[in-house]
Specification:
This protein is an alpha/beta fold and about 425 residues long. Helices cover about 35% and strands about 25% of the residues. Helix 1 packs parallel to helix 10 and helix 6 packs across helix 13.
């Protein structure tokens, strides 16, 4: 019997690592390639949340009114650098087009098809890894300072009701009974019982890759430059140093860098970078048990990676501009309002690049141009949340199986 060529998975962040791990579990020969150590990039600095309720459509019918504010305030929860925004005009037009009432419901349906199975898939994966203790016992509190803020945020609660997700509203002292560290200025909180968090996002990515290699998978350091293909399909992966690796199946899971490969194949995708920031506080002076999200201020606080992580926001400014650390520090000031006893000592600041598509749902798809080529990118804020699910669904596509989810909404040619 002819021996099959190995499957190449390009990108060893949480998505690529989950796909490679799943394929190897199914008995495939797999080579996982990345230009840097596994678990770096956005996978290193995410907020550790399994955000089961986070699939609401970002673009809404009224979103266009907010764009001038994004351009004017460099430390707003959502900001766009004015010069970079000019080159993003085609992306913004697609983003606004995704905000029609009909399209919003389609996007939410697509997101729900992934999110509603995400926690079970994460639990399954952690069980395989022998790492069930990496999933928190407590979950997430969504915070509101005023009744107006709570009412303004009703859309997300209605989304949860529509798709059968439970929640609990707390008021007054019931909030402090659940989390005594919270400021009295928080007048309402919503308990999100499905939204657990991970004790270390980077640690999880590393565990995945360690399990993958221990099970016979191969890890290779190198920068994927292009895919060699012809009318028969994929033939090889070419690395930047000239190495050529023969294969007939390739998965590109390189985050925002995926766009470069897709363009060379002849199927450009409108993939942008959302720059996100966090501050990792290793001596916070408090023992926080819950993760916290304050929607009105667009940030999150999570006890993870041996300390407390404060992060969030969206900055559209490309890959090359230096970080605007004021954005991270504004988030910390918000965190101290929510948690008055929080100390900011022994801390580091981080900025990373989330891969963002204008309709805010990922691409998980075979290529429309080259047989044997597959893409998994554009998971935005939900890379960790969708990681185990993406591993299973992408492995099905690569192996020619029928996935458990309708993959039509995630096809790559929806932008063409």
């Amino acid at each position: 019997m002819e021996r099959r060529l190995p499957i190449i998975v390009a990108g060893a962040g949480i998505i690529g690592a989950a796909i490679a791990h799943e394929l190897r579990l199914r008995g495939e020969e797999v080579i996982l390639i990345d230009r840097q150590e596994p678990g770096q990039g956005a996978s290193f600095g995410n907020m550790a949340s399994i955000a089961v309720n986070g699939f609401d459509a970002v673009s809404q019918p009224s979103t266009w009114r907010k764009i001038p504010g994004w351009l004017a305030n460099p430390v707003a929860p959502v900001a766009a650098h004015p010069l970079y925004a000019l080159r993003m005009i085609p992306w913004f037009l697609r983003f606004l087009a995704a905000g029609t009432s009909r399209r919003v419901r389609e996007i939410e349906d697509a997101g729900a098809s992934l999110a509603l199975r995400a926690l079970d898939d994460i639990k399954d994966l952690l069980g395989v890894l022998g790492a069930a203790d990496m999933l928190s016992q407590t979950t997430c509190l969504q915070l509101y300072e005023t009744e107006k803020a709570f009412q303004d945020g009703r859309d997300n609660l209605e989304l949860m009701e529509r798709y059968g997700l439970e929640y609990e509203v707390l008021t007054g002292e019931a909030i402090r009974e659940r989390e005594p560290l919270l400021s009295p200025k928080i007048s309402k909180a919503v308990v999100l019982p499905q939204n657990h968090f991970i004790s270390s996002p980077y640690g999880l990515a590393r565990r995945l890759v360690e399990s993958f290699t221990a099970n016979g998978g191969q890890l290779l350091t190198g920068a994927v430059q292009r895919i060699e293909h012809d009318a028969r399909g994929v033939g090889a992966v070419i690395l930047a140093d000239g190495r050529r690796i023969e294969t007939d199946r390739v998965v590109i899971a390189m985050g925002v860098q995926t766009a470069e490969i897709a363009k060379k194949v002849g199927e450009p995708i409108p993939l942008e970078t959302e720059r996100g920031y966090h501050t990792q506080i290793m001596s916070p002076g408090i023992d926080l048990r819950w993760s916290l999200i304050w929607p009105e201020r667009a940030f999150m606080i999570t006890p993870t990676a041996g300390g407390i992580r404060v992060g969030g926001s969206v900055e559209m400014a490309g890959l090359r501009r230096p970080p605007n650390w004021k954005r991270a520090r504004v988030l910390v000031s918000h965190a101290r309002e929510a948690l008055p006893a929080l100390k900011v000592e022994n801390y580091t600041e981080w900025m990373g690049h989330r891969p963002a598509l204008p309709d805010t749902i990922p691409i998980m798809s075979p290529s429309s141009r080259a047989r044997g080529l597959f893409y998994s990118t554009g998971h935005g804020h939900l890379g960790l949340t969708y990681s185990a699910t993406a591993g299973k669904l992408m492995a099905d596509l690569v192996q020619g199986r029928t996935p458990a989810v309708d993959m039509t909404p995630f096809r790559i040619d929806r932008f063409q």
